[in-house]
Each structure stands twice: as C-alpha cells, then as structure tokens.
Fold this protein.
Amino acid sequence: QMRPVESGGGSVQAGGSLRLSCVNSGTPSPLTTMGWYRQAPGKQRELVAAMTLGGITRYPDSVKGRFTIGRDTAGNTVYLHMNNLKPEDTGVYFCRLSKAALEYGSWGQGTQVTVSS
C-alpha cells in the first residue's frame, strides 16, 4: 500500500511562493495518477491539482496559472509549486497517490500552508 508523506508547508505572505513535496513511504508501486487537495477551516477538501502518468494536468480556476503539479524524473517525488499565493490558499494540503483513478488513491497526513495578507 502506498503511504504518501507531504512536506514543504509553512507560512508566507501574500504574493509569496512555496513548493510542496510528496513521496511514497509505503510499498513501491507504479503511479498512474497523483493529486494535491486542500482543506480550509470549515470547508470541504477540494482538488487543486492532478496529473496522470501521461502528463495530463488539471486545475480548478481558482489556482490555474499559479499552481503547477509535477514529478521528478525518477518518478519518486510529486511536487506542487505554488506562486502568487493568496490568503484564500490557506489550508491543509494533502497528497493523493494512486495506481488507478485518483479517487482510489491513498492519502497523506497533510501539511499546513498559511498565507497572510
């Protein structure tokens, strides 16, 4: 079973940047899809970036042009590059890794991102 572990969260001012990382600490498995979600206080968890093995990406309008999902050449680490951060980007960010469709993937424990105005 894959066990994603996130890192890279922190506190930044609006307009700043962060890069989140996600590695699989569980059983090595071929990745088919990977994604980043966030959950703001009092809100539902939402998808902010997803990518297939073939490199097809999707983003909601709220982060399009500011967030970029990627993975290293070895395929062991999934990244989320976040630029021009806004206070509304604040939340816990979760990585999800899957051998099939993203909705069947394993969740990480999350990493906190706080953006101050």
